[in-house]
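User: Show me an example of a complex going from sequences to structure tokens.

Assistant: Sure. Here are the input components:
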Amino acid sequence: MTRSTVGSLARRLFASQPRQAAAAQAPDAINVEIPVPFQLHLLQEGPARESVTSREELVKMYRDMFRIRRMEITADKLFKSQLVRGFCHLYDGQEAVTIGMEAALTYEDTVITAYRDHATFLGRGGTVHECFAELMGRSTGCARGKGGSMHLYKPSNNFYGGWGIVGTTGPLGAGLAFANKYEKKNNVAMAIYGDGAGNQGQLFEAKNMAGLWDLPLIFLVENNHYGMGTAEWRASKKTTFYDRVSYIPGIKVDGMDAFAVKEATRFAKEHCLSGKGPIVLEADTYRYHGHSMSDPGSTYRTRNEIQGVRQERDPIERIKKLMIKENVMREEEFKAVDKEIKQEVDDAAAKAKDDPNPGEEELFMNIYKNDSGLKTYGCDRNMVRVQLP
Amino acid sequence: MTVRDALNSAIDEEMAADPKVFVMGEEVGEYQGAYKVTKGLLQKYGPDRVLDTPITEAGFTGIGVGAAFQGLKPIVEFMTFNFAMQAIDHIINSAAKTYYMSGGQISVPIVFRGPNGAAAGVGAQHSQCFAAWYGSCPGLKVVTPYSAEDARGLLKAAIRDPDPVVFLENELLYGENFPVSSQVRDPNFTLPIGKAKVEREGTDVTITAFSKMVGFALKAADELAKDGIKAEVINLRSIRPLDRETINASVRKTYRLVAVEEGWPQHGVCAEVCASVQEESFDYLDAPIERISGADIPMPYAANLERLALPQIEDIVRAAKRACYRSK
């Protein structure tokens, strides 16, 4: 089928639907159908079931998702060779969530997430090198090697981390939305958390205040169905999160479909910025790895299940099939892109491996922003007394 | 000026000077403040800058910290610091550690303030002193004003400070009146965080104290003077950073030390004062260091028991005399 045939077919099928189908389309616009219906809570109408994209956007989305996939697979190897220490929580399988969401946001919108943050960091404009260097504790890392895997930040693109304590992104995200509203910025904040965090009391507190004060806040639940080793049905009396609260609308979306996430995010952003207050998005997604590198991920779920999702719902395979069907790229072009990105990621890892550790003076830096003249101490009080710079 | 008015005027002036400063907490707005510290502010600055929060400390503290990430300057009021325990994860893990964890990218210009320590007859859950707990955490600044001058100068400094500050007030000091100079009334008056004040000079024994205990120490010094003991009273003003220089300089002059605090003795602020002095001024000490602190028990309710649970002036006098080898 040619591009224009698909386009006109889609327009006929979804003629009664939405907004962007009616808007004038660029001649090379590609219409993507969103097959899985959105489930709505307290909403009369939901996001468009069709997304308008372009060759350029498709190529970018594929490249970004594939880069994340390669980064996470490489991080696995780095962890196993003990170059990455401590905790390492990988995002492979969930790529469509962050890339879909970024397709509807700008860097003027704010994003905050928990510890499964490598991909979110990339989505916010961070580089693979900065990420690997941080994971390996080098001075070239995005937090100068002082944060680690769970504490990646890029405030210049309004990415506020990177948090290890489950549930805190709710209130912190509400604070970011509060700041946007206080300063009269026309931007949303996105507070991301998982199904494991979904029962935290402080989320309920944040939702109450976000609703009370009409904060322009999108709560995004990355529901990969397992909070560490506990399946959602063993942790939650109610296993859906988009409809938890009776006064905040919600949308459940197929998180393996980047365009579904894009349209849901676009809808949510419009909702918030039109003064309607907060909204919850629940992305139905899946992680191929275990909770972290210390978890094989198979003691609480079957290998069949993991394989099944990989075969039926992989987000990268999905967009690749679409792009082939729409004649955006051919199979050989994909091979070339894959090879290029794999090389890019490998180069970033090699560079990061050779980067220096932080200097010893870093130990006592950044404790306070305003620290002139303050003294602090190392392990041996008699040996190491530092006057902070 | 009362301590209450000192705090109120400090917040008012800082809000007038900087539109990024806002206040949030329970009853800070329409109720005029549970202890009237925020009286009049809602009327003056409106509900966008003076926010009455629901009773959800973890939630609203996290909101304050998130707003601070983006450069606003929240003043988060806890009705007492006992309730801040519900929010302590945000104070420590979201606020104190962030500048370091982010390699200097995100600072947290927030003030957490409210009454700390014992009041009168409020029982075990409402009487804890948190100076030692917060004081042990790198990344936080912790201050404990005593007088109206302290309250104004330290609160203004705290609001202007780009780092998270835990500002520990005392309910029983709010109504106390102190003489203040015109310099203190100046809208740009601040006190440096990290510097103690010698409230009263002396030569025979050093008494360190903070918050309400400073008043007790000064009265103890009056008593001691009658017996010819000239006590030097140091108002710590700042728990973190702790002004070790001033404390040690004093002990190197008097050779004797009584450290006083209202909170529990084990791992208390006085323990750190003692450690600092024995490390840095060991050769100057003529007597073991004395500690007067709250009793090592949950706070009882009955008035006679509460009195026995908290340091009294006679305890400080007795300890000073022991340090001077003037009693059994």
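The lines above are the inputs; the final block is the predicted structure for all two components together. Chain A has two domains: 3-358, 363-389.
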